[in-house]
């Protein structure tokens, strides 16, 4: 099978490592106009001990140099150009299955255009909001009764209210089963945090609060002055859990045990280069994976983008009608 990877930066090169480990893949085409990005991809292949020697790699600087057919396309560029680039890809290349990096787009208008295109062309698109595929989070989900409301709080550093926030919001949707997160308010720090991804790319810090129709509550806080690991706390009337995925710390308790805490084994490898391997393998073999689809990821993006966009306008002093993130 042939896999096309568009964008070979920090994340794209990790997807490349995942794809390069799969025996079912026979050809990989990597497109990035930056020679430094292509070199990063080549360097990361050289780091691997399990790169499949039978795979043929092509390194391209222009999309029109790629083959006209692909079994899967991984689109790992920045969000600001995703809609235009996606339209170019489907014009030039016959491909029906895609993985998009998050955030999907910088505005809900662009997101809805992507949904319309995907629906009209019968395309399958999964979003790399991989938190719902973590073994720890799947365990939490299995212990929750879908009828019961939950309280879900997320806190950490790294001033990632948009970039990391969409992961948290999607995880809340996964736990709760909600179709929409209603906005309850919050406090956004009046500071733009610059990104190493570009001069016009930023993120925010602060707190966002929401609820769902059945009475679940969601609060997310990212600090702007430290990079402490993110902590997840979830609670229903029967179950509660505290998780730190970075340090692999997971405790849970139940009403039946008198809320006595119990440590849960945690040995998952949560790196993109590992998890993407499973996602790509399952898409190529079975036509699907545990990542949320473009439609399933809509509520998380709606909550994050619609409610942060006015703050970007205010801080920037201009109406840009989008969130200039990732």
Helix content: 25-40%
Average pLDDT: 96
The strand count comes to 16
Task: Please state the CA-atom Rg, rounded to the nearest Å.
Answer: 20 Å
How much beta, percentage-wise? 15-25%
Helix vs. strand class: alpha/beta
Please give the structural blueprint.
Elements (H helix, E strand, L loop, with lengths): L1 E5 L5 H9 L6 E5 L3 H12 L9 E5 L11 E4 L6 H11 L4 E4 L7 H14 L2 E4 L7 H8 L8 E6 L8 H12 L5 E7 L4 E3 L2 E6 L2 E6 L5 E6 L8 E5 L3 E6 L4 E6 L7 E2 L8 H15 L11 H19 L10
Parallel strand pairs: 1-2, 1-4, 2-3, 4-5, 5-6, 7-12
Antiparallel strand pairs: 7-13, 8-11, 9-10, 11-12, 13-14, 14-15, 15-16
Characterization of this structure:
This protein has 326 residues and is α/β, with parallel strands linked by helices. Helices cover 31% and strands 25% of the residues. The chain has helices spanning 12-20, 35-46, 82-92, 108-121, 135-142, 165-176, 272-286, 298-316, and strands at 2-6, 27-31, 56-60, 72-75, 97-100, 124-127, 151-156, 182-188, 193-195, 198-203, 206-211, 217-222, 231-235, 239-244, 249-254, 262-263. An eight-stranded mixed sheet has the order 8-11-12-7-13-14-15-16, covered by helices on one side. A hairpin with a 4-residue loop joins β14 and β15. It starts with a strand and ends in a 10-residue tail after the last helix.
